[in-house]
Amino acid sequence: MLIVHDPRCAAYGSSLRPEQPARVLRTVPYLKGRHPEWTWFDPRETEVADATLLLAHSPAHLRRLVQKEDFDGDTPALPEIASHARRAVGGALAAAYYAWSHRSPAFSLMRPPGHHAMQDQAMGFCYLNSVAVTALAMQAEMGESSAPRVAVWDFDAHHGNGTQAILRRRPGIFFASVHQYPGYPGTGTEDEDNCRNWPVRPQTPRAQHMAALRESWEAVLAFRPDLILVSAGFDAYAQDPITEMTLEAEDFAELGRWLKAGSIPAAALLEGGYSDDLPALVDAFLTGWEAE
Predict the structure, then answer these.
(1) Is the dihedral angle over the CA atoms 166, 167, 169, 171 positive or is it negative?
(2) Cross-strand partners of 121
(3) Could you report the per-residue pLDDT of 241-258, keeping only the tens digit for each?
């Protein structure tokens, strides 16, 4: 298991917001203590070129990111936030490239998250859409020898509205999202072209939620992707403070086991998850993924 992590991703924000530095500051030592054999990679020398970001975002959006004006109440214009967001994209790219080239699991433990970011709009704690950029960049990287197929599997409790908007109608791309509805951002109730959605009502019993996740996973496999990217949000956890869902740690471990059994190169990146139990949830998912 490769963990991609740049400690600078904890150098912004505060404990006053759900998306806070403690999310990674507590998770890093937890994983290192439980899995000393795992490999860690700091991508601080990785520079993400504008040309790569422009695969998913507009030039106007890149200019807007450096302006000192809040995007919305959840997405403030924090100091150096454009650099932090670029590094999160770099972490996702590093994890995906490793997974593809080594046929081995990789997890990007970075912040900010990204799956709400639209082509020209930051929102919902997200500034750049790391998974969408990575899907398009990796498709181009793999395209030298074939027509590569990339699937994005999003099990965050919130719909990946930005990912869907960016990847919609892109050839060779498939997007699947299982998320709470009603709930933020209020989208993801219908399928659209190459994007499929499984909305789950608040307080849906675990077994029913897992059945929706299983159906979404089977749809990912049916797409026959060459690479799977996972928007791994852990806010569907029963004790998460900002959602109303019912999953437990063992359910995230099961999602990891599905990835393992799929035998398809895959990389995951941290999206949501705001409970104090986040380190244990990430560990359950990664341990299930790596298990023999």
Answers:
(1) positive
(2) 118
(3) 999 999 999 999 999 999
Catalytic choice (84, 116, 158, 209):
116
First-residue to last-residue Cα distance in the chain: 12
Residue with tokens 């869907």: 164
The strand order across the sheet containing 106-108 reads: 39-41, 2-4, 106-108, 266-270, 227-232, 150-154, 173-180, 195-200
pLDDT of res. 292 = 67
Rounded Cα gap, residues 167 and 154, in angstroms: 13
Helices (H), ranges, the chain: 22-34, 50-53, 59-65, 81-102, 130-142, 161-167, 206-222, 249-262, 278-290
- The structure's pTM equals 0.98
What angle is formed at CA 25 by the lines to CA 233 and CA 257, rounded to 5 degrees? 40
Residue 287's pLDDT is 98
CA pair distance 48, 113, nearest whole angstrom:
16
Decide: 240 and 274 in contact? Cβ < 8 Å: yes
Q: With helix as H, strand as E and coil as C, how does 104-165 read?
A: CCEEECCCCCCCCCECCECECCECCCHHHHHHHHHHHHHCCCCCCCEEEEECCCCCCHHHHH
**Is 57 noted as a catalytic residue in this protein?**
no
